[in-house]
Each structure stands twice: as C-alpha cells, then as structure tokens.
C-alpha cells in the first residue's frame, strides 16, 4: 500500500530486566542521561524515585521496571542506570532503566498487536522482532496514567445545549490502540451524551469506514491516534482523503507527542486538525469545527 507517509520510525531499545528488551518510539524521547542523584518528592507515587534537575527543568523520575511490575532497582544498581527523558501527555518525565541497548528503525507494519495471552492490563501496545529477539513496545500513556492519574474533571468537556445538538446527529469514529486513550475519549463523549463508534486499530477503522460508506451511512468525523501498529493514523488519514467515498469525513488526528513535526505531517497527509492529547474541550471544539465543515459539504 503506497502512501505519502514514511512508515519507518526510530525505536529506542532498553532493558528493564537482564532478559527482556523493551522499546519506545524515539519521537517521545528528548534525551538520555546517566543516573544523577535525585531529590525526594514528598507524598509521591511509590514508583517515583525523586526529582532530577536537568538543563533547568525539574522532572519526576520513575523506576520503570517497578512501574510495570518487574523487580525495582536496588541502590547498588543506580550508578549504572540511565534516565530516558520523555515528552508525553504534555509533561516531561524521566524513566530510570537498567540499560540502553540501541536505536533501531522499525516499520509500523512490522509491529503486531500484543498476544491475548498477556491479558488486558499489561503495559504493552505491540510486539516486534529485532535481531530475532521479541521486543515489547511499552504503553507509556498507560504507565503515566497509573502514576499521575488525571483529575476526573479534566476529562469532561463543557459545551452548550446548542453545541451538543450540533454534534449528536453526526456519525463519529474513535480510533486508538491504547485502552487508556479510548477510555478518555469515551468518557468525554459519554459525559455529554454524544454517540460514537470505536476501532482499536487503523485497519479495522478503514474497514468500518468503507462498510459504512457502502451501505449509505458514512462517518462524518474521525478522531484517530497517530502512533498505532499496522495502519497508523497518518496512513489512515491518507487513505480516507484519497477515497472519494470516504473523504466526506472530517479527520482529527491526536498524539501524545508534544511535537510540531507530528502536527505538520498530519496536515500533509490530509488531516484537518492535529491535537496533542488529551484535553477534552480542545477535542470537542475541534469536532464542532468538523461539524461546521461537514454541514457545508452536505
């Protein structure tokens, strides 16, 4: 399948245990630094080891192994550890890991969904093979949501009765491989009584969109994550915009990455908007702009 997007992305491979390697996308990574002494943070989550001051930024540092259920780091190990500094969910966070392996290129099409045997409460969004070894792609969003839970009110949008009635007749599709993100999106729309459909990956979403168009009930608004195994959000947007039976839909891509690059690429592949997730009111107002555009097309 040819698209205007580059499906290859850098993956940072690292160790949480001596046997198992894990990965996160390099777009989430700002910097990797050796362990530095930390300042205690009173009343913090048990997995937060303290705060580091790096280049003028003070950020919490999480024992990633402990956070995902592996043995925590011992004091003797700290001097040999590294801090992966990430920019995700609009916050700078450091993850302390036992070792850094390498950065490798990976095509999203080569990342598979995690095996069902792992269960539904694991911190893994996909698995891939590198040098014949199985690598687990960590769900950083889920991990952060456990350590720094959202305040309930921050997930709930505010809108007028008139705005609600503008959105209610529209056919809305939410697409995200992260259970945390799907729950946030669902809670936001449930709280204002807006109906919607859900797809857990880009391929299923494209099939749903095509079927809906074939039966004469096309979707009006698509809200999709960007980083997904298989068919990612960029490619989904490109396929929709290049299909005359689907391009009626208003496409909103969202990402946990605080990156201008992500926003720029989203517009290049035909998305109407790109948001840094998650802020409920921003999303709802983007959908209202979509409703206005869809109504002018009709």
TrEMBL record:
Coiled coil: none
Top-rank lineage group of the source organism: Bacteria
Modified residues (4-aspartylphosphate): 225
Gene3D superfamilies in the cross-refs: 3.40.50.2300, CheA-289, Domain 4, SH3 Domains
GO biological process: chemotaxis; phosphorelay signal transduction system
CheW-like domain segment(s): 8-149
InterPro entries attached to this UniProt entry: Chemotax_regulator_CheV, CheW-like_dom_sf, CheW-lke_dom, CheY-like_superfamily, Sig_transdc_resp-reg_receiver
Assigned keywords, A-Z: Phosphoprotein
Span of domain Response regulatory: 171-292
Protein name, per record: Chemotaxis protein CheV
Lineage start: Bacteria, Pseudomonadati, Pseudomonadota, Gammaproteobacteria, Vibrionales
């Amino acid at each position: 399948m040819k698209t205007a997007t580059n499906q290859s992305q850098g993956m940072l491979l690292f160790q949480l245990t001596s046997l198992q390697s894990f990965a996160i996308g390099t777009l989430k990574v700002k910097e990797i630094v050796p362990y530095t002494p930390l300042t205690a943070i009173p009343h913090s989550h048990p997995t937060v080891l303290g705060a580091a001051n790096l280049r003028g930024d003070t950020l919490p540092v999480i024992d990633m192994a402990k956070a995902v259920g592996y043995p925590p780091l011992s004091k003797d190990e700290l001097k040999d550890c590294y801090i992966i500094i990430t920019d995700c969910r609009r916050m700078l966070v450091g993850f302390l890991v036992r070792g850094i392996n390498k950065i490798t290129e990976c095509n999203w099409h080569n990342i598979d969904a995690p095996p069902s045997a792992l269960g539904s409460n694991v911190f893994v969004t996909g698995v891939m093979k590198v040098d014949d070894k199985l690598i687990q792609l960590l769900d950083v969003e889920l991990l952060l949501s456990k350590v720094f839970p959202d305040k309930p009110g921050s997930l709930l949008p505010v809108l007028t009765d008139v705005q609600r009635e503008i959105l209610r007749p529209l056919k809305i599709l939410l697409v995200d491989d992260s259970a945390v993100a799907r729950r946030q999106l669902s809670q936001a729309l449930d709280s204002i009584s807006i109906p919607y459909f859900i797809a857990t990956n880009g391929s299923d979403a494209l099939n749903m969109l095509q079927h809906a168009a074939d039966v004469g009930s096309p979707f009006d608004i698509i809200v999709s994550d960007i980083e997904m195994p298989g068919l990612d959000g960029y490619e989904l947007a490109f396929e929709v915009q290049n299909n005359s039976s689907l391009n009626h839909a208003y496409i909103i891509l969202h990402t946990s990455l605080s990156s201008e690059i992500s926003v720029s690429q989203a517009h290049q592949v035909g998305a109407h908007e790109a948001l840094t997730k998650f802020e409920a009111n921003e999303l709802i107002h983007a959908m209202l702009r979509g409703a206005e555009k869809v109504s002018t097309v009709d």
